[in-house]
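Database export, one record per block. Field names are fixed; values are copied verbatim from the stored entry.
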Amino acid sequence: MEPKGLPSYEELEAISDKYGDSFYLFNDNLFRKNLREFNGSFTEVYNNVKLGYSYKTNYIPEICKIAKSEGVLAEVVS
């Protein structure tokens, strides 16, 4: 699935009006696409590659679930 484009200025204004000036936008399709392309860059050269995602520094549950569903390992070193 190809990721959708960026939201328009009007859409961002509407989000800001509803939730306040500080917010994150996350494109799950683009994240999946980036994970697959990043992994593919390594697996073209190396046979045994596993990606890891830092849960400790980037813990947003839905993002972690997506990473897990894409076969990315949890990096949890303290």
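Remark 1: The longest strand covers residues 52-54.
Remark 2: Residues 13 and 30 are 22 Å apart (CA to CA).
End of record.
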